[in-house]
Amino acid sequence: MKKKDGMVLREVCGEKVLVGEGLGAVDFGRLISLNDTAAYLWEQLEEDSDIDSLTLALCKEYDVEQEVARHDVEAILEEWIKTGVVDR
After folding, report:
1. Whose CA is closest to 52, among 79, 39, 70?
2. What is the mean pLDDT of the segment spanning 37-43?
3. pLDDT category, 20, cuts 50, 70, 90?
4. How far apart are CA 56 and CA 27, in angstroms?
5. Rounded to two decimals, what is the model's pTM?
C-alpha cells in the first residue's frame, strides 16, 4: 500500500482531514475527515506498508488486541482504496 501522490493530512478547524494538493486536488476535489486512529495509520503508511506492519504499529501505539487492530486496519485500507487515496 502507498499513499496516492498529492494526498496530504491537514488539520482544518480542529479536525484532521485528507486533502489533495497540486494535481491531487484536481483529481480528488474533496476532504476526508479522519479520527485520531485513522490519522495515525495515515502517518504510518509508506510505500512498502502492508496490513501486518500497520497492525503492529497500531498495537504499539494504542492498547488494542491484535485481532481488533487487524480488523480496523483492513477496514480503513479498504475504504481508502475505494475513495482513491491509496494504491495497492
Report:
1. 70
2. 96
3. confident
4. 32
5. 0.86
Q: Map grid coordinates 476535489 to a residue.
A: 29
Domain boundaries, given as residue ranges, for the chain: 2-83
Residue bearing the bigger pLDDT, 43 or 88:
43
Query: How many CB atoms within 10 Å of residue 26?
Result: 10
Tell me the CATH number of domain 2-83, given options 1.10.3470, 2.60.40, 1.10.10, 2.40.50.
1.10.10
Distance CA 73, CA 9 (A): 18
**Measuring CA to CA, how many Å separate 30 from each of 7, 17, 24?**
11, 10, 10
CA distance 30 to 2: 19
Q: What is the 3-state secondary structure (H, E, C) of 30-81?
A: CCEEECHHHHHHHHHCCCCCCHHHHHHHHHHHCCCCHHHHHHHHHHHHHHHH
